[in-house]
Amino acid sequence: MATVLTALAVAVGVGGGTALAAPDPAGGAVRLAAAPEILLAVNGFPRTVRFQFTVGDAKNAKATFELAKAADVATFGFPAACVTTGTAVTCALGSPAQVDVVVRPKAGVAAGAKGSIAVTTTADGVQPHTQEIPVSVHAGVDLTLQEFPAAKEYTPDQKFTIAPVVANYGGVTAKRIQVVYSYALGVVPSNYASCQNDADARRFTCTYDQSIPAHNTWGLPALEFGFSEDAFGSKPVSVTVVALEAVAAAEPVVSAQGTDINVDDNTAIFGTTVKNTYDIAANGANASGAKDASVEVTIGVKNNGKATLDGSATGASPFAYTFAVPPGTQVTGVPAGCSSYVEKSGGGVDIKPGAAGGTFYGCVTDSVWFKAGSTDSKKFTLKITEVKADATGTVSFHNPFAEIKDPPADKDTANDTAKVVINPSSTSGNNGGTTTSNGSLPITGTSTNVPMLVWTGGMMLMAGFMLVLLGRKPEKTEEVQTPA
Predict the structure, then answer these.
(1) What is the sign, positive or negative, of the torsion defined by CA atoms of 243, 237, 20, 81?
(2) pTM
(3) I want to staple 311 with a disulfide (CB 3.0 to 4.6 A). Which of 130, 184, 368, 376 is the partner?
């Protein structure tokens, strides 16, 4: 399968709104993945705008930038491999399919100046597509938070330090800097009394009486963070910086709160990944009844820890499991969070949320956080259509339809399958598990090879936030070097 590059167009120090490109009605495969609005500052620093494209299987893909309508607003610097013809510049789209353009406000341009560039994508056998990108000039502060290094892997007992660096790409001095740190569940910040804390939102805010002149950088005070013992997976910290005031040369202080020229580059993510283990155990059940009787069975899973599974980044459940229905029974009541899975004759799976009458169900945990020590339970209602001694179904995590067959960090696979027994001949000795006749307690057994639901689990990140202020003395500002 061909890889399709669909990343958002990222403006390094440039932004405004980003508008996703519309689908090509002719089925073309070359297009801007997103359209960045180019915002510049009067007397501001040159910015690098990264245009990223969707290419797919297209051959001889190119992007042509027509600059005529922006000639009075800005100047543009393209990679050496691009070809200039008059006011147009054409660049081949390789791998990665992106073009970095250095954009400078034109000398003497005034605030309010506007223009645009037209970006046309072409490829062999593909209908050309053109999209207009606005370019505008503004007066004021334009803070940019420099990107952090690539994410590192830690263990829960380790600590890490964040030392942000902010640059002022605007044409006036920024004064009084506010920094907000927002972190994922499982990240533990050090306690800084001078910061305004919001423990519920996992966010803390720090304010510094610091000035950053135009075209200068400032290294913020370093903050230390650790992890809770149940932390697991991606655990980023989001850092956002704003200027509360601006000082123009020979002019009085004016309020600039919320008026940063481009706020899209005021945030950077400090990525961390926590290596930990967990043990998820399947919970089964027993029930008894006569023909045509209805019985309830409560199945589920328990997180024995140490790690808490976190799906808050996407709002999705972090763990999925399956229920293979015992023979001689018919499902008449399906709990929320469970779907019937039926393999189609031509391939694929027909998934019907909440549908009765199925023989195989996939379920997901109710919460986006499957915390260590917690249990997720689902109550099914079964009608006994045929009385069979020890009619056995299973609760499990194994799924032949999924690319990931088993939880990758589960440290004990012996309890990944549990039995659901209807009309058991004995209520003891079920592979060491426990049970009751009404199905209210789990039966944990050894793994058996039974068809199962799609594994949808996957940790992701970041649901709340909290911010801390530091009282370290600011470092000196430094002159930013103009890009070549």
Answers:
(1) positive
(2) 0.73
(3) 368
